[in-house]
Amino acid sequence: MKAQVGDCLIIEGAEPGEPRRIGTIVALRNADGSPPYVVHWVTGDYDSLVRPGPGARIEPRAERLQGRL
Which of 15, 20, 22, 24 sits 20 to 30 Å CA-CA off 47? Predict the structure, then answer.
């Protein structure tokens, strides 16, 4: 998984009924774009350091700007 600042991190709920988490990557810890990422979460309005697992995906910033998210 590779990301850039401004990309969206989407983590699907692990259990039925658990909400999807959506955040914006605000900082990278590795120059090659690999995890972990500093993510600003839409719900809760806070930042956290994240190592995405198998239920996560990156939505590139360009796609977000085109309204695909």
Answer: 15
